[in-house]
Amino acid sequence: MRRAFAFLLLVVLLPGSAWAGPAAKIVQKAISLSTQGDHLGALELYREAAKGFKGASVGEQDAIRKGLLHESSLLFEKNKFEAAIGGLVTLLPLARCHQGSCQSFIIQVRMLLENAAMTMILTDRSQAAIPALEALLQDSPGTPMRWALLARAYLEIGELERAGQTLRRALSLHPAAPELLFVKATLAGTMARREVARSGYQRAEFLMQDAVRDLQAALLRKPKAGGIHRALGTLKASLWVYYRATGQYKKAAQTLDAAEVAFTDSAHLDPNNPEPAFELGNLLFTAQDWVWAEVWLREAQARYRRISKRRKEPEVNRAAARRGMQRCEERIAAALFNRAIDSVNTARFDLARELLQAAAKKMPAAAAQVNELAGWVLARRSLFQRKVDRLGADSDSGDAQAALGDLWMRARRYQLARMAYQRALKGEMKSVRPEQIQDRIHGTMEMEDEPATLKTQVGSLEVGLETPAGVESAFLQSLLQKAHAMTMSVFPHRLNGPLGIKVFANRRAFLEQAAPRVGVSQSGFYAYGRVVTFHEPHRSQGKWLEILVHEITHRYVDEMTYSRAPRWLSEGLALWVSEKWPVEKRVQFERLASEGRLIPWSEMEKHFTRNWNNPEETRVLYLQSQHMVHWLIKRFTFTRLMVLLDTLRTGQAVDDAMVSAYGLPVEIMEIHWAREFQ
Q1: Mean model confidence pLDDT for the chain
Q2: What is the pTM assigned to this prediction?
Q3: Which of 42, 401, 559, 599 could in theory staple to 423 by disulfide, Cβ–Cβ 3.0 to 4.6 A?
Q4: H or E element that contains 615
């Protein structure tokens, strides 16, 4: 093919030919390089010849056009996209003069240039796509796709103003184009994140809500446009994060549902597009709905697979589909592993084993992770059974039976837990008091939740209270005044959203309804923008205050970092605010350090995930988190810790944010921290 093309050009450029002219020598050199396989060199010569295009003969012009197209096409096939774009941008203004099959030639050049630009964007090289797209839009009236690609390219390289200008011009030409509305939604989300990074929370919400209104208006005109539904889902997902971070838990729940509906509609309206299914699966994964996340991720994977197998599909699209399949595979594995971890934490070991067996069959590539988790499941099962057997055999010990009741509560076996607690009251107890056991018995009951609701004001903060029978709202209000004053005196930040507080009737209702991954040893929890706890008849006023201060601190950290704080930082800071660093905690920590039970900083999040319902392990995690935050404040000051929270809000990864805030790599900081107690 290459030799045939060279022969055809040489025929018209032979010395003495009627078409031989000044550009002939350059073109002949280009043909020679192309024949030798040096297509980059050939293309550069054709581009050099194009500088004298106007003065060239008709034959030379024809040779230059065909040569530019030929070499650009070959380079495109060889994934030399930037070079191909350079050649096509040079060719585009020359293609309009082509005689004969003029229209088809121009269309071929434009389509190749658009595909090259799209490839650059899909492979994270958006800067290189911009010249191609600008040339296309200058050459002819732009299609919505070309305008959308240009706006997205500007967006990807951080040129938000130019992205906005491009979109405004494009939407004036194509007001209901789904491609443009999708990029507008993405731009609104990006600008909103920038406003959040600057603490402009209200401006961020306005930008996202304004884009939502545009999309909803577009849906009235085009209700079956899958792209508009997808854009709406993307924005609703961003708003869900915003509402969670700013304590608007009711809006957060409603917005999550709306995002699911929008993505589902998009997936059904556009059955060949895997992206809406993947984005829905990813959203559900983030919301810890592992089962439905897996369902939609498998649907996305199947769609990617179909694209990857289409022979007529451009290779760049098939390659992108293969990458999409890999992303789905990784996310599906993570969903299965999380289900297995949650099953272990509630003592459903058989289910955990079945899930891992299914993962091993479906995902051979994850064999190492499956084997490691399977070993962990066996160890946890054995340990749980040994504890049940040992404590069950000591039926006369009140302490042993109380511990057995706690084990059954972890397993959500409430009747067995209640029976063990009742035996504890009859036995000898040294480590627990009778009123504590009575509270635990109360916590096993199945109780109807008919809360009283109250909206009130605590300082400048709007508070929504939900309390069960037995808890006076006035009592909580007085404690809230103190808790709010304590936390407000610590943090320089002022909360933007309201504060929601839900008190469940007892521990059982709390464990079953509060949120995913609520551990049996927890007295309170901060989830989805709301503080949750439960009623215990003998809970002291001091304990109530400690819980409120602890969970309201989580509310501050969540908003200040935009839900990006690692668990150890949020828990450590909440403990530091609610109880500082008492002597008994220091003694316990030093004992853990001497026993070699401390956890590397890089593994803290993994241990929190795996042991969320294991009181022995969470005690170590909480104690170490508290010490880490105490050390950071003591060594670098509280002000520097606030800089860390602000840096996390900008979207930096945790390790990068630590370097930005403290000027030291995390590994070096951990060494200094270890010296503190060695």
Answers
A1: 89
A2: 0.83
A3: 401
A4: helix 615-636
